[in-house]
User: Fold this.
Amino acid sequence: MALTMLLAWLTWYAIDHRPATRDGSPAWSPDGTHIVFDVEQGGHRAIAVMNADGTGLQTLPGAGQIDAASPAYAPPDGARIAYDADVGGNREIFVMAADGQNRVRLTNDPAQDVSPSWSPDGRQIVFASDRDAHPSFDLYLMNADGTGVERLTTSGNNGAPRFSPDGAHIAFHSGRDIYVLDLGSRVLHRLTNEQRGGDGLDPSWAPGGGRLAFMSARDGHMEIFVMNADGSGPHAVVKVPTGSAVDPQWSPTDDRLLYVYVPEAAPRLDERTSRSRAIYVADIVSGKVTRLSR
Assistant:
């Protein structure tokens, strides 16, 4: 009996004291068959890929040594992945092959360059940087080889830029509100209003461009909402009784949303669970939710 109890305690101790695993920033491949994301364990972040059903998890070797995050597949074929990574204390934008090979650095600036997002044709990348407005971030556009960097915004604190499916607009958040920038006219359209209780963060376009998913704490804690592309009709699609649902990403098939669930701090000793973050997928029509990562 004593030996059994000791073995049980040792098993519990080993499990309970494993480094917390935090999965974040999931993104679909253009064909919807794979998901790329960043994974943190023991304070170190790397890029990982899994099948769309959560199987076949593998960490990509090309981005495993430099605290990599915020990956995104390149359209139209998903042959490349853009991401940001730490280089000497600041973050830069990189591109690598989908298998983790052939890593190429695109930015080289003593600033924080983060959150890359591809244009629909794979020829351009939009990203956020504090290079001109530190500590605030603006949005920048560059060619996929890192040339032709152009500043898009000059005010606010902006992040999480995402191209619309037609490439004509970029959705992003500024502060705690979502805006859409018309790339032709450079006119900004504000879609949410935090001062009226309707904040929004991390927008993600539906494949048709008519809707946006985003996260909001308007109901008390972070959950996933959907609204029309003009800001009308916002409604919750992923509600969680505790914790937070963050990092929404719309599927290429228009029927599912990836998100990351962040549990609240547990009142007991099981802090490992409360510190861990896992990727889920929600079926928008049926409401079914499935956990994909650990």
